[in-house]
Amino acid sequence: MLVNFTVKNYRSFKQERTFSMEAGSIKEHKESVINKGKLSLLPLAVFYGANSGGKSNLIQAISTMRYMVRRSVQLNEGDELPYDPFALDKVSDSQPTLFEIQFIKDEVLYRYGFEYTRKEIVSEWLYEKQFGEKEYELFVRSRDLIDVSPKRFPEGEGKEDLTNSNRLFLSLVAQLKGEKSNSVMGWFRQCNVLSGIDSEGYEAFTLKMFLEHLNGVDEAQEFFKTMQLGFTRFSVKKVDIPKDALNSAPESIKSQIEKDLTTGNFVEPITTHNVYDENGFVVGERNFHKNQMESEGTKKVIEMSGPIFDTLNEGKTLIVDELDAKLHPLLTRNIVLLFMDPEKNQHGAQLIFATHDTNLLDLEIIRRDQIWFAEKDKVEATDLYSLVEFKDEDGKKVRNDRDIKRDYIRGRYGAIPFIGK
Hints:
Layout: E1 2-8, E2 17-20, E3 34-36, E4 39-41, E5 44-48, H1 55-71, E6 97-105, E7 108-116, E8 121-130, E9 136-142, E10 145-148, H2 169-175, H3 179-190, E11 191-195, H4 203-212, H5 217-227, E12 233-239, H6 243-248, H7 251-254, E13 258-260, E14 265-276, E15 282-289, H8 290-293, H9 296-314, E16 317-321, H10 329-340, E17 350-354, E18 371-376, E19 382-386, H11 404-409
Parallel strand pairs: 5-17, 5-18, 11-16, 16-17
Antiparallel strand pairs: 1-2, 1-6, 3-4, 6-7, 7-8, 8-9, 9-10, 12-14, 13-14, 14-15, 18-19
């Protein structure tokens, strides 16, 4: 589970800013809070802010850190790193970017981070904390000098000189079968970052889930039924088509067949609809290709069902930019309720997303510490703050009986566009 994430000198983030999933000491929706040792963590967080306020940059920062950790061992010496510093001053482009993340994996709290420039890893560190114990250093790196704790991180001993200046030490040790390093890497593999606008990258996973009837299919079917999306059932059928025949087929046929890149199979996603007589009674069924009959919003719900229910069933962390794109507000609301319901979210799953849907600013369904804002200051650097941290001009915090949606639209909490006067 994600505990917090810190970023500095990345895109619109100039100063160090931290996003936290730790629950505050407030009373609303206490049943949704997930307790891990002495930590109380949130199953969901929602980001608001004006266009270009920095919401997407925060998600991109997490995605970039994840990418660097997972792909570091593939770098050749001299390859450039994804360095994208704050660009609107005269000094940031000569300073390193910083990422640090805290998360729980296998009942251990890890704190891992690094600083880097376009050419090298400037520093890197990894700490662990067993529940009920103090935090211990596993290794600390300053450029090419790496100090490994022989008692806490023996898997790193003797490997200090094997890491190139542009590679992460953690990734190297994990590649060499280190136990703790692979546990840390495992969390990054279980954290998925998606676009709510472009389904590329997760639609194939959903098709595979339904084709092979993996964990989550039954829950997804029930969710479709609850949402009353118009179809009675969604299914995926394997289609055996010789490659030569597909190449020579008309484009109208090709558009109805999709290749599941995770299996190499050609598959057809099908929605089943009832057929009615003149009196409105069901007299049969008819199948359609998903793209033939369904709206863009319905197609998105289907495509995202794989990551959503995989996250819920496996206790993963799912991060989505523009979750509400193409979706009716009630559909987005019901996705939120899946993660807030402790009966449906039994494994500590977390959903974090950016949105413009103000209908979710409702303290009947989420908590004040789950609402976050991203706003740029006078030098166009992004600031982050949660509703539970916000104080008005009199220094008073936001009460739980406020009309949050109305206050936000009126600019009470900032993080809105200013149009004209």
